[in-house]
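so i finally got all the pieces together for this one. its four components total, 436 residues if u count the protein bits. some of the lines might not be protein, just check the labels. i wanna see the whole assembly predicted at once instead of chain by chain like last time, that was a mess tbh
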Amino acid sequence: MLVALFMSPATLTSRPVRSSSREKIARILAAARARFTGAGYEATSMDAIAAEACVSKATVYAHFRSKPELFAAVITDEGDQHLVPLAAGVHESLESVLRRFGREASELVLAPSTTAIFRVIAAERSRFPELGKLFFEAGPARIQGELADYFTGAMERGEIRRERPQTAAIQFLALMLGDLQVRELLGTEVAADLPRMREITLEAGIDCFLRAYRLPAA
Amino acid sequence: MLVALFMSPATLTSRPVRSSSREKIARILAAARARFTGAGYEATSMDAIAAEACVSKATVYAHFRSKPELFAAVITDEGDQHLVPLAAGVHESLESVLRRFGREASELVLAPSTTAIFRVIAAERSRFPELGKLFFEAGPARIQGELADYFTGAMERGEIRRERPQTAAIQFLALMLGDLQVRELLGTEVAADLPRMREITLEAGIDCFLRAYRLPAA
DNA sequence: GTCTATAAAGGGATAGAC
DNA sequence: GTCTATCCCTTTATAGAC
């Protein structure tokens, strides 16, 4: 009876079903993401996804019309998680901003989960051409843009040499990664040493960039 | 009769068979390479490879025990094609050497065939861990080593600032590629503009590197 | 060595009960 | 919406004739 006071008829009928359904969809997406990024698109079966999500295969098909559609949903869902916001304090030095931003960008790009999703998008490029562009725009392009905007200001303030801001941003990011992204994509056992390698590459990259771009303070 | 003079019995019996067999193996490898790099490992069927090589599937299995073995053979075969030899003339300027080497490396790494093989190796990293390492050692690592050796000499000659040669090599190569490798892997429609983008990235990269590393001539 | 034919298993997708 | 059971096709790999 008390239960009836807290649970309306609607809650007892349609609501629990819909709520449960939402959870199922979330579990399906999570399972699909794990399998697709772990084993690849073709090597992942709908059976495996259903099993990992603890639902029947028919339930998967009730929410996603087909395997390609589920894959697209996973990648799109990944969406805007690949942006590094760059908020420079007014009194912060150039070097300090670069180090902070460089570290965040490097950590994000070289994170195993990022590498895994990158791998599968690159692999399925011919089957899902639009997803590659989508990922590039949501990730690398926005990081570049963020940094280019900062460089525009730094050039106007006379902190760094005038050059195309976009070019400077691309070069800075390339220096932050060195060969680590390629190493990770190919799986050359950097995993254990990754944090150390990242830091070394970061410091050397900042040094190189500043030598090439820094202007003596007025 | 004349034919008999030029074709020994051995040629008429065993040789043609073995020669034909060699050709078949070559065709199988070529077909496998095309399919694997084009559609990916899982999406490529042994039937498709056999058909493209114009042999029966049983013939494929007569020469390669399984699909994984054929894949490994393809990647290994790719082998040492990814080295850029760096022969610097004695009287050649630093800038000229860098431009020549940078262009060759950039063209090699960004070639569609290289990108395609890179994609499939990265995608199959978990199933074939050793192939990723093999590719890195045969390709990027050797290019880095070649360049690092040159930088060692250039540092001793006082042409560039002293720094770890390996670090300088990695930074130079990163600057040569900018974001073009990532763009190509993801398929962001640079294909048409690629030669122009390569050249722009190359010049900007050399400029950046020289500003960071060049020492005034003694 | 090379072929045709086939075995054995797994995958995407759906029918139908609840 | 969710499940069980099933259809139908493709895939890897092999058997057996030549």
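The CA atoms of residues 186 and 199 of chain B lie 20 Å apart.
Chain B touches chain A through 50 residues (CB under 8 Å).
anyway lmk what u think
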